[in-house]
Design the sequence.
């Protein structure tokens, strides 16, 4: 679907979406259309329960003579509460209502809103982003989809007086959406398609955007001493990989980079500590942390962010087999620290241990942020509203939380501490890989912290956020690409060269 921008003019065909504010207050465009159509909109509102509350919609099939075939009213809520996410939801809701409706053209009318901090150009650009994000589909394996279930919409035009400014603002957002779509694609793919080798190959496509990409195989990782990561993949037919992506966008190419590290378990069967069959198919998306890091690197490179950033993803498949790691095995990590593997299903932390150590050792980054579908316990704690945030650095934690709030990818900070760290003491090695059920997400984070070598670090446990069971205004159910917009925003707000600096 194409997203376009144009100056306001009443369309003569297709569908038109207009905004209504809370209390049935018509936006300027809605007003104009209502006059044009002899009060059609007002009458429809009067006979319905539509009040213009945020997220409410009312579809009106237009009578002959109006030109357009449908008018969609979308509630915006209160003008003063309208922000970027509200604008995205506006565009996304319009697309959600019309994507498979049979219409091919949609006009979304964007008006100046009195009392809103959002400029009309920014409103239109964000609505365009929401429209694009909501139009995402992953239906490549549906060979028998009925015609009426296929998208009909070809083009969504945001109409706004400041069309040129809106288009310019959208160009940047469009690159972020490219990153989001790459992440959604790889997270949606089944594990027989996306495995360590094929996911590494996807990361290599970032070379087209001038990202340097290196792929280490098992031989090289063995040489580096990555016994922790390699132990997880040793039961799989697929070769484990470590992918290193570098985007050098800062004016000073020698400036220390910021670093993102992703858990990329392309399938987590649990290994010998095998998971129950029910729901195991979900574990194809246990690489969502790696997927988000790859997508974020794509977004940064796509929009030519003025920052030096490194993305490192550990890619393994956790399978049971005759060569698989056993409970009780002791492995030696790249850091030299030894780990007793109590449970082969606590594998993500084993992968990240070596990926984190490698990253700080090689790049001496300003800070490291890892993203991982790490624990079921975080879903019990926070559900699907917030990802868990753990950090050794308060500034980094605060900035991450602020960036998350700004893009609607919310984070909730949980504690770290000595007492939790004690839970992973082992009788035979430097530590064990599980700390029991109590505080399961926290002890997992304590484990990771031991591999950060005191570099400023934050850990995002995204197990509850990577996959959505329901449609939202800007994301159809399925892979969400949680983390891509968050990391992009963190960079934009706090770590990019500013003009004149
Ligand atoms: N990938 C899982 C965590 C997970 C669970 C992600 C559900 C998404 C949805 C992780 O590798 C895992 O198995 N964690 C175990 C740790 C336990 C064995 C200490 C868990 O959370 O049960
Ligand atoms: Mn597991
Ligand atoms: Zn896992």
Sequence:
């Amino acid at each position: 679907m194409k997203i376009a921008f144009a100056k306001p003019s009443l369309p003569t065909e297709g569908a038109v979406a207009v905004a209504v504010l809370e209390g049935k207050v018509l936006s300027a465009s809605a007003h104009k259309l209502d006059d044009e159509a002899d009060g059609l909109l007002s009458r429809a509102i009067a006979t319905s329960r539509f009040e213009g509350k945020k997220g409410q919609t009312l579809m009106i099939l237009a009578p002959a003579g109006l030109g357009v075939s449908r008018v969609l009213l979308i509630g915006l809520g209160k003008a003063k509460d309208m922000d970027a996410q509200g604008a995205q939801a506006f565009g996304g809701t319009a697309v959600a209502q019309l994507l498979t409706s049979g219409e091919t053209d949609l006009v979304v009318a964007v008006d100046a809103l009195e009392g809103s901090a959002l400029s009309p150009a920014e409103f239109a650009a964000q609505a365009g982003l929401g429209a694009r994000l909501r139009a995402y589909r992953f239906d490549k394996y549906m060979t028998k989809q009925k015609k009426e279930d296929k998208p009909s919409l070809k083009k969504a035009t945001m109409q706004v007086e400041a069309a040129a400014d809106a288009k310019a603002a959208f160009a940047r957002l469009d690159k972020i959406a490219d990153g989001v779509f790459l992440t959604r694609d790889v997270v949606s793919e089944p594990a027989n398609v996306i495995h360590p080798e094929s996911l590494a190959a996807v990361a290599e496509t970032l070379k087209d955007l001038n990202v340097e990409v290196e792929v280490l195989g098992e031989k090289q990782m063995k040489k580096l001493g990555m016994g922790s990561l390699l132990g997880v993949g040793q039961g799989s037919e697929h070769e484990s990989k470590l992918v290193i992506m570098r985007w050098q966008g800062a004016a000073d190419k020698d400036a220390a980079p910021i670093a993102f590290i992703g858990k990329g378990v392309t399938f987590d069967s649990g290994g010998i500590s095998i998971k129950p069959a029910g729901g195991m198919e979900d574990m194809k998306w246990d690489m969502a942390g790696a997927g988000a890091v790859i997508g974020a690197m794509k977004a940064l490179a796509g929009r030519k962010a003025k920052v030096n950033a490194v993305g490192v993803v550990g890619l393994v498949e956790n399978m049971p087999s005759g060569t698989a790691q056993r409970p009780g095995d002791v492995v030696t990590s790249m850091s030299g620290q030894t780990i007793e593997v109590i449970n082969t299903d606590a594998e993500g932390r084993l992968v990240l241990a070596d990926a984190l150590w490698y990253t700080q050792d090689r790049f001496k980054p300003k800070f490291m942020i890892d993203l991982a579908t790490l624990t079921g316990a975080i879903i019990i704690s926070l559900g699907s509203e917030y990802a868990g945030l753990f950090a050794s650095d308060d500034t980094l934690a605060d900035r991450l939380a602020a960036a998350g709030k700004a893009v609607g990818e919310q984070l909730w900070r949980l504690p770290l501490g000595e007492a939790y760290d004690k839970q992973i003491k082992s009788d035979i090695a430097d530590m064990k890989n599980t700390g029991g059920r109590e505080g399961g997400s926290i002890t997992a984070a304590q484990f990771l912290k031991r591999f950060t070598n005191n570099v400023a670090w934050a850990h995002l446990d995204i197990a509850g956020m990577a996959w959505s069971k329901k449609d939202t205004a800007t994301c159809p159910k399925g892979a969400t690409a949680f983390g891509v917009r968050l990391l992009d925003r963190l960079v934009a707000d706090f770590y990019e060269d500013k003009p004149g600096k």
In short: The CA atoms of residues 418 and 446 lie 9 Å apart. The pocket of BES (ligand 1) is lined by residues 268, 282, 286, 343, 345-348, 373, 375-377, 434, 440, 463 (CB under 6 Å). DSSP finds 15 helices and 20 strands in the chain. The mean pLDDT is 97.
